[in-house]
Amino acid sequence: METGMHKYFHWGAMGSLVLLIVWCLLWELVLAPLHPGGSWLALKAAPLLIPLLGVFKRDVYTLQWTSMMILMYFTEGVVRGWSDRGHLSAWLGWGETIIVCVYFVCALLYLRPYKKAAKQMAKDLLDKVKVHSTQ
Fold it and tell me: Is the pLDDT of residue 127 over 90?
């Protein structure tokens, strides 16, 4: 089921997930922490480490649930981009939003052929059940 573009969507999902982890850590520890010297908010990168191996291994289930989990980071990026007073922190929020959008789109496009195949299998199974029930 692997096509040329399919491979790039996987690479895009992996790259954007790793970039988001690094982005969150740099943002909260170095570039624009809430408190001088870093803040505990850097721990927001920890949940992103959980699905990292599954995304690298192309686990369909992991890509499905992370495409929903990642939307929390989208929300945080929009809120902080819109409301942070520090000029750099606001830009970092918008950057987080863009990275999340890249991950979301790549994950969905990577999962698309699997979703189509699952729908076709379900349709075939239902057709088979209908044929057996009418006999």
Answer: no
Half-sphere exposure of 59 (CA within 13 A, CB side): 12
Q: Are 12 and 100 in contact (CB under 8 A)?
A: no
Is it the case that residue 98 has pLDDT exceeding 90?
yes
The long-range contacts involving 4-9, CB below 8 angstroms and separated by at least 24 positions, are 5/109, 6/110, 6/113, 9/106, 9/107, 9/109, 9/110
Q: For CA atoms 6, 4, 56, 73, give the dihedral sign.
A: negative
Answer whether residue 70 shows pLDDT above 90: yes
What tokens appear for 112 in the block?
């698309």
**Secondary structure letter of residue 135 according to DSSP:** -
Q: Could you tell me which residues come within 8 angstroms of residue 89 by beta carbon, excluding any fewer than 6 positions away?
A: 27, 32, 80
